[in-house]
Amino acid sequence: xxxxxxxxxxxxxxxxxxxxxxxxxxxxxxxxxxxxxxxxxxxxxxxxxxxxxxxxxxxxxxxxxxxxxxxxxxxxxxxxxxxxxxxxxxxxxxxxxxxxxxxxxxxxxxxxxxxxxxxxxxxxxxxxxxxxxxxxxxxxxxxxxxxxxxxxxxxxxxxxxxxxxxxxxxxxxxxxxxxxxxxxxxxxxxxxxxxxxxxxxxxxxxxxxxxxxxxxxxxxxxxxxxxxxxxxxxxxxxxxxxxxxxxxxxxxxxxxxxxxxxxxxxxxxxxxxxxxxxxxxxxxxxxxxxxxxxxxxxxxxxxxxxxxxxxxxxxxxxxxxxxxxxxxxxxxxxxxxxxxxxxxxxxxxxxxxxxxxxxxxxxxxxxxxxxxxxxxxxxxxxxxxxxxxxxxxxxxxxxxxxxxxxxxxxxxxxxxxxxxxxxxxxxxxxxxxxxxxxxxxxxxxxxxxxxxx
Length: 453
Ligand SMILES: [Zn+2]
Known about the structure:
21 strands; Aminopeptidase; 6-stranded mixed β-sheet; binds zinc ion; alpha/beta
């Protein structure tokens, strides 16, 4: 580690308490995007924060959405550029009575920072600022160029961010990006993810009549619920294997290097079982088998199913319509359009061509980048500097995110991390918090990653 980096990491530690105070102010904005609350004032706060820390900042209006805040610090055109994406909006707070304190009265207690949005992802922006502050204090400026983009609608699916990106590809150009996320395992090891799964979300509908009928006609009238259930059972076997022909043919296979990292993972499947109160997983096995499946298996999930009468008492009806919402999680290289085509073909070939399929628009594609990308190497080395050990490296997360967007639309290889949360942070739930130790670790990780980029 260079002398400068050692000093920078020490500086992060010294300045962390002040950064946490600033974060309290930031978290006090009730920026719930689902309710369009406090967006202009939060954007203004972020703009000021970036400007005070040496960034050239602009707010970009979006067509009908809240402003995107964009800042850059170009120290030398010949140096590489790191892009950092976060969002300033947060999830709603209900059920409010389950919170131990006011979600927007940020506070530190028991070595933890509490408040809605502190971990997802207002705290992440703060560690980035803290890292930059430390570099500026020690060296006068960071060793690379930095760009920060903070949007205000991530928690409602970023409906206006795509148009911002398409219109501003030029300014977003960089040699690597970090995309929100970035958490820690319970025991403190940081985790980075080199991409995300994608989602194909479809509504499936069976309509067998124009109107509901008295169920005494069931001997002769078709039933859409049975019809849809029969169609659904052709999609997946009890072990979770998807039975649609050719479903897996594009799926990216694990590389030996990725598996080496997963073998060394500290992931504990028992902890998840206990947390959920689940006695057995779909296809059990040891920690490694479970983790491998969690990451590399495409999924087919019935998210909801409705038909007929389900209120109190009885109603003898033969319904006309049945609907199910299904999400297919796709691994990198599987594309929504192509998989949707396979699903249609499958249903037709099984005699279910009458089932109507309506895919949801704007779902996120799967994405992942190679472990040898500059941004990955910098994140791994930075973890050794900051934590004294390599991070958990997952080839992609089990959830969906905007990586594909940055990788493909802007052409910037992106990862998730470093960040402030851990697997008990209650993201999107009551009592959201992070551990102060992870905040300091994350900020050091960020500072070291900047130094190693
Ligand atoms: Zn979130």
